[in-house]
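note to self: dont lose this again. the chain is below, predicted strucutre after it. 204 aa total, dont forget to put it in the shared folder this time
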Amino acid sequence: MFKWRTEAKWYLAALSPLAFFAVAAVIMAVSGQGWPDLAELGKFSSLPVMIAPLMWVVMLLVNAFPEETGWRGFAVPRLLEKRSLLRTALIVGVLWALWHVPSMFVIENYRELGLPFIPGFLLGIVAGSIFLAWLYRASGGSVFVVAVWHATYNLFSGTAAAHGLVAAMVSTGVMAWAALIVIVEVRTWLRGRRSPAGLKPAVG
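---
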């Protein structure tokens, strides 16, 4: 849970939602829509309004870290003992998506998006599960690193700033990460099947 010493590149991966937000902000400015209001990053559902860095800390301590202790700190390593990364991520992803259903009726930003938002939201949860299972394994089993990603993602996808292009860009970025991981894992599996040593890691 408190393993924070890992390579810097995994922290960069954990902060990737910030990069997706920045790309969306530039596109909005160039297209004449204006820059996103950064003050809206400090507005989340029924919580008091606060500055964005403090909101991130609150999300990390109250939401991301406790949640990741269960999903990535407990479920993922145990499932990985007998299952592939992709199968593990899909199992946790489905459970995680169902666990998030009530939040769609509680979090104001989600309610405003309406019912058409739900399929994309659930797909994003599964994509996030794939990415986080990979990040957990790549970082050497750091719950803290995946919690950093979780809090950063929530800041840019769940606050009042997450609407229109911003929400789409952040969600698409996670799905792109997940798609890349799936491609790499499948290619690794196929190479294993063709290996003369007979190494055949299971994929799903």
